Amino acid sequence: METSYTIVVPDIEQLARLCGTNDSNLHLIEKFLGVPIYTRGNELSVESSDPSVMNRFRHVIDRVLDEMTESRDDDPNLVTSVITRLIPPEDNAEPDEAFFSAACIRIPGAVKSVYPKSYNQAELIQSMRRNNVVLCTGPAGSGKTFLAVAEALNQLLSGNVSRLVLTRPVVEAGESLGFLPGDFEQKISPYLKPLFDAIEYLLPRGMPEKLAEAGAIEIAPLAYMRGRTLNNSILILDEAQNTTREQMKLFLTRMGEGSKAFVTGDITQIDLPSRIPSGLIHACRVLQNIEGIKIMQMCGSDIVRNPLVRKIVQAYENDEEK
Asked: Which alpha helices (H) appear in the chain, and where do they start and end?
């Protein structure tokens, strides 16, 4: 005999957003659960005697409502992203609610919490907490840089480290830094814009500038890192596919006591001259068996930008396989 499981959503506006236009979001959740959802006033119900169905129903609704409350954006793909990350990599496995909950990044003083959008994203967050060095490769939009910045801010503002150091290789495309206007920081800032975009997205207005003025956030171009030992810091190297072997070794050996290093890059977008091997590819090979170092590979299913980005990346991947 089937039993009914009901969730009450007291906020009518949230209920409307959850259901979606013409109940489009409810239809997505129904497809995920494999059972219909019934609405009555501000109640959502499923009729099933299967505990796993009830658990998934409760988890999906609770997670969507939580993210609606904590997010400053009205994301039309929120329900889709929640459902997508609940699909485990192994067939017939149940979603691990505790795994995703533990991977949530709650930055002190931030405007929103950061939830992983896929199993790989949750694993990346957990890896950054468990390991001193994480090298993460993957396509554009898979969240590797954003999550590295978010977790680094979490560690910084929680007091676990005293400084966040940002760096990125400068690979020029026909325009020399020496001929660009402004001082060195003004010249290098365009290369670090994606990192600052993530910081500004997560923190209240004015807070990134205050942290930079206090020295808690520092720009450290690779060429200027030689000879330094960075203690009690988190180091982020973005666009690492464009480092040479020597630059990658230089970066990784700057770590001092109490420091971590997060390295991100897309090995399909290498801008180095063809005769120069990528330091990221080399590092992933030679460091893979060292304890305390985690190598992560994101994929097309982890892409959380505009859904069209995932299709574009997949199209290029399919073309390369021909």
From this structure: 12-19, 24-33, 51-70, 78-85, 97-103, 119-130, 144-157, 184-188, 193-202, 207-213, 245-252, 279-286, 307-321
Q: Phi, psi at residue 167, to the nearest 5°?
A: -150, 160
Compute the distance between CA of residue 174 and CA of residue 62 in angstroms, rounded to an integer: 51
The per-residue pLDDT for range 275-294, each reduced to its tens digit, is 999 999 999 999 999 999 99
Give the pLDDT confidence of 101-112 residue by residue, as tens digits. 788 899 999 877
Q: Which residues of 40-66 are buried (b: 16+ CB within 10 A; e: fewer)?
A: eeeebbbebeeeebbebbebbbebbbe
Q: Which residues contact 153 (CB under 8 A, 6 or more apart)?
A: 107, 110, 164, 199, 202, 203
What pLDDT is recorded for position 194?
79
- Provide the 10 A C-beta neighbour count for residue 105: 22
Q: Which of 124, 227, 132, 208 shows the shortest CA–CA distance to 166? A: 208
Residue 165 pairs with which residues in a beta bridge? Answer: 218, 235
Put simply, whether the predicted model's pTM sits higher than 0.90 gets the answer no
Joined together, the tokens standing for residue 293 give 């170092």
Q: Residues in the chain with pLDDT < 50?
A: 1, 91-92, 172-177, 179-180
Report the helix count and the strand count for the chain, using DSSP H and E. 13, 9
Q: Which of 296, 255, 265 is nearest to 163 (CA)?
A: 255
